[in-house]
Description:
Elements: E1 6-7, E2 13-14, E3 18-23, H1 36-47, E4 52-59, E5 71-72, H2 79-89, E6 95-101, E7 114-116, E8 120-122, E9 125-129, H3 132-136, H4 138-151, E10 156-161, H5 166-171, H6 186-204, E11 210-215, H7 226-237, E12 243-247, H8 269-275, E13 283-286, H9 292-300, E14 306-309, H10 311-315, H11 319-323, H12 343-358, H13 367-391
Parallel strand pairs: 3-4, 3-14, 4-5, 4-6, 6-10, 7-9, 10-11, 11-12, 12-13, 13-14
Antiparallel strand pairs: 1-2, 8-9
The protein binds flavin mononucleotide (FMN).
Flavin mononucleotide is lined by residues 21-24, 56-57, 99, 160, 162-163, 213, 247, 258-259, 286-289, 309-312, 345, 348-349.
Amino acid sequence: MLDRPLHLPCGAVLKNRIAKAAMSDDLGDGRGGPTDAQRRLYGLWADGGAALSLVGEVQIGPWAPENYGNLILEPLQNEENFRALSAAATANDTHFWAQLGHAGALAVPVSGPAKAPSALDVSGIHAVEMTAEEIEALPAAYAQAAVNARTVGFTGVEVHAAHGFLLNQFLSPLFNRRTDRWGGSPERRARLLIDIIAAVRASVGPDFPVAVKINATDQLAGGMEAPEALDLVAMIDRTEIDLIDISGGAYFPGAAPASDGTRSGPYFVDFARSARARTGKPLMTAGGFKRRAEAERALSSGAVDMVGLARPLALNPALPEIWLKKSGEDPVFPRFSSTPPGGVTAWYTERLRRLGSDGTADDAGTIEEALVQVEHRKAANAILWQEHFRTGS
Ligand SMILES: Cc1cc2nc3c(=O)[nH]c(=O)nc-3n(C[C@H](O)[C@H](O)[C@H](O)COP(=O)(O)O)c2cc1C
């Protein structure tokens, strides 16, 4: 199954069933523009044989980034660098999609407080409630970002509604306590996402891939759980979406993000099997695939149409080429003696930086070193981002 093409509803064809799942690589230039390191990194993934390469956290605007190394699609700056990135990333007939992001309450500071569906003041996270006007402006903002993505050579977009960021906050009964038309019932909490998908589709036309990433479970007490997520799948089924990318977890303090988990997977295939009964749209899961046999089984059992790999492709960008051969070997995963919160994700982020710098990453150091590196880069990029977008220079 791994080498079979996948035909998407919009008419686009993915050449096989392996996707490089979205990873926030933290390699942007600190002002939302792409760098040579990203061009090299996405070139490696294109050469490595994945059918689809998703860039994590490409911001729809500068005001609510997940990190200061994110790319920004509106305002569109450094068009030439974006085009160079797309050219490298689409080599070898690879699809290259931008994951459209807005971090909501989880945004790193830019200017003023973070905005979220409802006010929040917990574990160092402060956010104020979005006004109706601000919410009404979001579908057009996502749509403009999608148009800009297409302009600079991305071949598709994914609306990010997972992992605790803005649209996941709207979906979650824990974070969305609104009593207006965007809060209350599951349908009302999903309204913004459904409107955004419609606006994005209308803006890019019928032939451009539009995907959505959702949580099967927020893995947070009081958050969205599988039964409601299955109802959400049924609501998304009625949109013109091309692919539903299923994940889980959240980046709230104390919660469990999928990128930090070390338990064996794959994590969300059983949910995908249940989701099949609620939608005819192509399904993808990312999370915990470590062995070729697991990927093959998830596909051949009919649970999923596409397998997403994040950390395995940070370990070896050429893994798809290897797995596309029946004899394909499995990657060797690092064993960490301790895993402080965020440490595993930081270690893989550092590995991406090393891959981007010279194409090799035989060693990414220890988790502790990676955490220091990631914090150091964040502090340096914070200065650039805040200076740039505060002054609008
Ligand atoms: C360094 C790193 C950055 C990530 N950034 C994103 C992101 O920007 N958007 C997203 O949806 N998922 C992100 N993830 C999560 C992955 O897409 C994936 O869901 C998760 O790592 C589980 O898959 P895996 O077991 O194949 O790594 C990230 C993961 C890692 C390791």
